[in-house]
Amino acid sequence: MKKAKAKASKAASLAYNSKNGYESISPAELKRCEDMNKLYIQYLGKAKTEREAHDEAIELLEAAGYTDMALNEKTGQKLNPGAKVYRSCEGKTLMACVIGRRPFEAGMHIVGGHTDAPRIDIKQNPLFENSEMAMLDTHYYGGIKKYQWLTIPLALHGVFVKPDGKKITIKIGEDAADPVFCITDLLPHLAADQYKKTLGEAVPGDSLDLILSSMPVADKDQKEKYKYNALKMLAQRYGVNEHDFLSAELELVPAGMPREAGLDRSMILAYGHDDRVCSYAALKALLDLEGTPEYTSMVLLCDKEEIGSMGATGMASFFFENTAAELLNLTSASYSELALKRGLNNSWMLSADVNGLFDPLFAGAFEKRNSALLNHGVCVTKFTGSRGKSGSSDASAEFMAQIRRIFDKAGVVWQTGELGKVDQGGGGTIAYLMARYGMKVVDCGVGLFSMHAPMELAGKLDIYMAYKGYLAFMKDGRGK
Question: CA 446, CA 442: separation in Å to the nearest integer?
């Protein structure tokens, strides 16, 4: 019997098998997991857009003693080890960090996620009248299955900005007393032609028009009575007119709060897990980082990832590089481009983005042995891209070994995973944009069911292990 056990133990030590985290998590840590996820649910319910995610993050940071780095940039006051600062870009993208003991040139430990999510945007000249209804014209944002957005209750979030700079915030559909909105679908009795089309063709993007209202203004002489009545209500409630849509950013998102899911409440069903789940886990890890880390610990919460990371608030912009330059200037006796390049080159980064969980209902799209599984912990994705790894930064074996060391030492439940079968599809993150600097980068995030759907499903244990892994990464002294 002893020989058999010894042989089995030896075989187990030679083999690799990821394990369900619930088999090893202690009652005390399970409570920490639940507590952390309660906070995440609260955050996610408030952060339905990238602007809201940015503002919620700043509120949490300032409550924890972080200050706006713009003040230091203005006064020239240096940042000493242990200083906690943040830097904002256009109210959408955010950097926050704790200055480490080592100089900037030694590199930083960066965890970077994104806070934009697939949604439906309102166009700049959207309001029109059709069939005795006021309607809004839309343009979808990011990779969505358009048919999933029909008939569900939608909330309208965003801002109108007046020419004088006055900003008017809109949030309709989240309060229980609020109305909601919807985009209609064709009844099955008349859908014979629709059924013949592919899922991608059945709902054209131009057909995603929103019903705004359906009551006319009382004035019989008024043309376009339904459109005018909608404008009248907007003017009365928010002080805006039709011209103000030209300088507005309005988004349609699923209405309602995130919910615990499953009989055991082990999962969370919500809009925007991709990628606020990783962004919040990273932010929470930074907030819980005690003392002064060896290396400057930084969290990036960026915009525009779902549409290619372009624009001033996307990671393809110079926001990160400019911020790094400011950090060097504020933490060093002198500034040089060589020191900046060395610091970026010597940095380590976890690109905190989600992966797809193996779904038994669609098993043919996955290669199970190399797919992430629910409750098996945070997923480290060595490469993304599509087909022949196109568009991937592909982390080095040496850096993968460092991540193994950090996570194993901290007791992080983790796994590896790819995004589907080799020729099935693929995806990308901000990893390749950061790897340009020569820094070591790997994707590391939470696995999801139904990614990019109006409602996505994530496991609480996986969310907690992402937080735990990010915190261990920030604390790490690179084995010294």
Answer: 14
Phi, psi of 68 (to 5 degrees): -75, 120
Residues 109, 325: Cα–Cα separation, whole Å: 16
Q: Residue 10: what pLDDT? A: 59
With a CB cutoff of 8 Å and minimum separation 6, the contacts of 266 are: 22, 375, 459, 460, 461
pLDDT at residue number 449:
97
Task: Give the integer Cα–Cα distance in Å for 338 and 326.
Answer: 14
| Separation of alpha carbons 419 and 370, rounded Å | 9
Distance CA 293, CA 109 (A): 10
Partners of 390 in beta bridges: 386
Q: pLDDT at position 389, please? A: 82
**Model pTM?**
0.95
Provide the b/e sequence for 442-474 (b: ≥16 CB within 10 Å): bbbbbbbbbbbbbbbbbbbbbbbbbbbbbbbbb
CA atoms within 13 A on the CB side of 76: 3
pLDDT of the residue at 16:
86
Provide the CATH topology of domain 119-254.
Aminopeptidase i, Domain 2 (2.30.250)
3-state helix vs strand vs coil in the chain, percent to 5: 40, 25, 40
User: Helices 273-287 and 27-46, interaxial angle, to 10°?
Assistant: 120
Show the low-confidence residues of the chain (pLDDT under 70): 1-12, 480
pLDDT value, residue 2: 60
Q: Which two tokens stand for residue 323?
A: 């911020």
Q: How far apart are CA 40 and CA 379, in angstroms?
A: 19
Q: Of all helices (H) and strands (E), which one includes residue 195?
A: helix 192-195
User: CA torsion 28→33→39→40, rounded to 10°?
Assistant: 170
CB atoms within 10 A of CB 231: 19
Nearest to 242 by CA among 224, 228, 223, 225: 228
pLDDT at 5: 58
- Determine the Cα–Cα distance for residues 315 and 279; give it in Å rounded to an integer: 14
CB atoms within 10 A of CB 82: 12
Give Cβ neighbours of residue 471 (< 8 Å, ≥ 6 apart). Answer: 285, 288, 289, 410
Q: Report the CATH fold assignment for 17-117+271-475.
A: Aminopeptidase (3.40.630)
Q: What is the DSSP letter of 180?
A: -
Residue 425: per-residue pLDDT: 73
Residue ranges of the domains in the chain? 17-117+271-475, 119-254
Sign of CA dihedral 365, 393, 376, 305: negative
The two beta strands, 93-98 and 108-114, are unpaired
